[in-house]
Every structure is written in C-alpha cells, then in structure tokens.
Design goal:
about 350 residues; alpha+beta; Immunoglobulin-like; ten-stranded mixed beta sheet; four-stranded antiparallel beta sheet; about 40% strand
Length: about 350
C-alpha cells in the first residue's frame, strides 16, 4: 500500500513544480491538499497500525532498537537562514544518535549542541541548527542528496530538560539531561531556488509536552515552541564527515590545550597539543583568507601530549589558524603569526 502511496506522492511532487501558467492556482492548491492528506495518512497508518505498539512520538516506547552513536558533526559559519544570524566566525558542534526502525524509517536524537566564538543571536536557534546539520550529514543515507529528492518521515527527537553551560566567554554548551522526549516529524526535500540549492523542511507533526520538573541544573524546554516549524535552509555542500559552509578566520580565546613556540615565528613553529584520547586526528592549517595550506592525519596510540614541528618557514607573513579534529569531533584551535 505504501509503495502505491509513494508513487502518488512523487507524481504530486512533479505536478507541484509545474509553472502556474500551466496549472491553475486552484488545481495546485487541491493537489497540495491531497499530498498533505496522504502524508498524514502515512503517519497515522505507521503509528496506529504498521508499527503496532511503537509510538514514534516518544523516544523508545514499544521498540528496543539500539541507538547508534554518539555521532559528531561540526560546521563553521553556518548559513544565515539556518542560524537566524550572520556570523562566519561561529563554530557549531553537535553530537547525536541515530537508528532505523523497520516499517517507519530513520530517527535522530540530539544529545549536545556547542557554540564557539558565536554572537549571542546565533544561539537562539540551536535546535534548528542541529536539525539542519543532521540533514546535511545524513543526506546520502536518506537519499536526499539529489535535487527534488524527499524523505517523508524524518524523525527528530530531543529531551525536554537541558543543561546550559558557559565554559568561557567564547564557548557555550547545551546538553540534554532527561525529562520527557520531544519529537518533530518532518518531510525534507532537496530543492533549488534562485539563490541555489536548499533543504525544504515541512513539519508533519510535533509532540505537545506539558511542563516537566527538571532537576537542577537542568531547565525545561517547551517542545511545541522550540521544535522548528516549516522553513528552508541553504545547502552549500559538505566536506568529508564534517560540514564546511564557509571557513572563516575567527578571533577567539585560544584553546587551553594547544601552544606554539616560538610565536611569533620567523621560521618553523613547534606545535604542542594535549589530546583528549587516543585515535586518529587531522591537523589543518589555514591562512587569513580561509585557504587550507597544510593537512596531515596522525594516529595517536600512546602519549596524548603530542608535539610536532610545522615547516612554516616557507609560509608568507601573516596570521595562521591551526585546527585539530578527531573522529569524535573534538575541536582544538589556536593561531600563530609568521613575521618574516
């Protein structure tokens, strides 16, 4: 039955992209109403019949499928239509879990959202930024990496209790810490407009949670008002594993666990890094235009206090950023100056 409905939905999607000069506005409105009705029918059928006792508007009730993760993604200078602000220096890092429910589809549960070097206005849309970043990172898995491809039951889950920590003037961390489960179900389509490609998010359903008494230091977050509604977010492309809409040189308080000697330097510079755990790390160097001029992967198996000499003697005079990233998404950043 659902394959038949899928054929109808794809046909309606094609009709909806026909210019209004070809189809009357009245007919287009009717086609859109039919499309929404079919989406709702799929949702009701899945939750009431096909899934039996499983209720996708909760986190785990009625299903024991394990969550995969945590998975980390990070991006620099996310698009303004995603963040609700324009800040090319802002670094956003998220951790989340995913799983596939047979008969329903993929579900994603956000665990942490970190802002680094971000204007305060950029932190107002934390859930929307995380939703967009998951869609960017998972677009191949969801088969929405080509134009006009859609995923009909993107299930986005978040806790109603969150802890907010300001580690420094430049770093803020939002961490899920229990409560009930807030769920938004979306249709996500890959579109192209006059300004380029974008993701079209259509909210099909959202849970309505009553106020929950969160344990200190956690705070209650209202589900219905915080879960993103219908909106569009630019799709500028992605890098391997992480998201790079635009890499800008950002002014920040350097990480405590990276040092350069000498700094400034007129030749090579020794980089000392205190790494959080064993694993494979990528060391990248960017000039003041955001161009990556050096990149190297290093496998750390024993000593977490790693030191290496960067051959910067051939670098032009200027300010340089060093970013260290690992499989867990840990970001360590710092800068040095070349004076000769």
């Amino acid at each position: 039955m659902f394959q038949f409905i899928g054929v109808i939905l794809n046909t309606l999607n094609k009709f909806s992209r026909v210019p209004s000069t070809t189809l009357s506005n009245r007919l287009l409105r009717r086609l859109e109403m039919v499309r929404i009705a079919l989406l709702f029918a799929i949702f009701v059928s899945f939750t009431g019949i096909a899934l039996g006792s499983y209720d996708p508007t909760h986190c785990d009730e009625g299903d024991t499928t394990a969550w995969n993760g945590p998975i980390t993604a990070w991006g620099v200078g996310l698009p303004a239509d995603v963040m609700g602000c324009s800040d090319t220096n802002c670094i956003v890092t998220i951790t989340y879990y995913n799983r596939f429910i047979p008969g329903w589809g993929y579900e994603f549960q956000i665990a942490t959202i970190q802002f680094q070097n971000c204007d305060s206005a950029c932190k107002a849309n934390a859930w929307r930024a995380a939703l967009w970043m998951i869609a960017m990172k998972e677009q191949e898995r969801l088969n929405i990496d080509d134009v006009d491809e859609c995923y009909l039951s993107f299930t986005y889950k978040a806790a109603t209790c969150w802890e907010y920590d300001n580690f420094s003037p430049s770093i803020s961390l939002y961490k899920a810490c229990g409560g009930e489960c807030c769920v938004g179900i979306y249709e996500i389509c890959n579109r192209v407009g006059t300004s380029g490609p974008y993701f079209e998010f259509t909210q099909i359903d959202v849970t309505d949670r009553e106020t929950y008494s969160c344990e200190t230091p956690c705070e209650f977050t209202d589900c219905a008002s915080t879960m993103p509604g219908n909106w569009n977010g630019s799709n500028p492309g992605s890098g391997t594993g992480n998201i790079f809409p635009k890499l800008g040189i950002y002014e920040s308080i350097p990480s405590r666990n990276i040092n350069f000697h000498p700094n400034p330097t007129d030749g090579n510079v020794v980089v000392s890094v205190e790494l959080p755990e064993k694993g494979v790390y990528t060391f990248s160097v960017f000039d003041n235009l955001g161009n990556e001029i050096f990149k190297q992967e290093i496998n750390i198996e024993t000593n977490l206090n790693f030191e290496f000499e960067l051959k910067s003697n051939t670098f032009p005079i200027g300010l340089y950023n060093v970013i260290v990233s690992g499989l867990t998404g840990e970001i360590i950043n710092g800068k040095f100056i070349k004076v000769k």
